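Just wondering, can you check both lines?
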Amino acid sequence: MKNLFISFLLLFGFIYAQGQEPAVPTLNYDALKKKLEKSNLDIKDAKKEALSKTWLLRGELLQDINDVNSEFLRYGMSTMEAKLFLKEPTEVKTVEEGEIVKQVYVYPRINLTFENDALKSWKETEVIHPDPLPEALAAYNKALELDVKGSLDKKIKENLERMKKQLETKAINGFTEGDYDASLTAFENIMEVSKSSVYEGYIDTIIIYNAALAAKNAGKHDKAIQYLRRAIDLGYGGSVAYYLLKSEYVLVNDSNGVINTLEEGFKKYPDTSLILIEIVNYYLTSGDVSKGLEYLELAEKKESDNPSIYFAKGTLYEKSGNKEKALEAYNKSIEIDPEYFNAYFNIGALYFNNAVELYEEANKLEDIKAYNAAKVIADNELKKAIAPMEKAYQINPEERATMETLQTIYYRLQMLDKYEEMKKKLSEM
């Protein structure tokens, strides 16, 4: 599913890029550096520090610094377009990643990576400020605090809207480059921007959801849980959000979180097979037969032509000791899908295990006639395993467990030609 998330983010970035006119880059690096030095002095000056305008200008300057190299860049732009702004690179490196060949255009303060003459990513190698946007936000919050009349509200809100787009670019760039920590930080910074007083409690649910996806891919499961839970509470993400939250609870070994999330999701989206099947799988794994069968009955009503539902029912019946019902369910799976490997294997295994029990009982008998009679019964039960297990082998001839089971059956029933043939195939694997 990760590819789905990346595709979503790329689409998000593409829409943003298409909706904007190409910006004129602020390439006067030294001028911005000097302005930042002056701003640093201004906020230490008692008179200037008390002026809201000082902080407004500082915020705007820090935003300009953030864009000094990259405000005109967009995914997919050609090398020719890049050269219009940055001129010729100081070096062009060729990087091979498997069958993919990339060109890295090296500039004094930024490297651009192209694939098939389309910009794929960029990385700044020298910066005026290491992380200007959070500091810009702090400057705007200070300006709002000092501006008691609210005369700067409109201007600051416009600047914050621009900041959100800047952070979105960082978030998307981080996600597509696999730097999920950076992506998560950018999404979290957008959430901080939305807390500004000019937004009056506005909540950006899509950003919260995307923060969860970034956290998930970064392996920060606690944060992924936090943001997915918040997105769900805000009504965003649908049944998929519940599925993802369940997956995060699995990764942190929280079984209560798993089943509570699934059951909550099922109540909210009762027509969604995804959640229902996950609930069934949970009870199948935990061994709660009655609960599993209860939900399987619901699943069967929704997807009566799904062989995996009947296979799951067979497994639960077998666990509960109801072998007759188990066989009935497995055969129903095969009726729907004549090539359903798991059902054939389980039928064969069920007969095989029955035979093993019968052999064990026979071995307890001291009377030779009684033993021979019991052995015949066990042999006949074992013979029932041959056809389904051979069909399973036919469907998947690479499955070692099937081959080993057949080898044992052939040997036990003295089907020596088949035994030697299977033994040879196993030795060659």
About this structure: Strands lie at 91-97, 100-106, 110-115, 118-124. Confidence is low (pLDDT under 50) at residues 3-26. The longest strand covers residues 91-97. The CA atoms of residues 280 and 295 lie 6 Å apart.
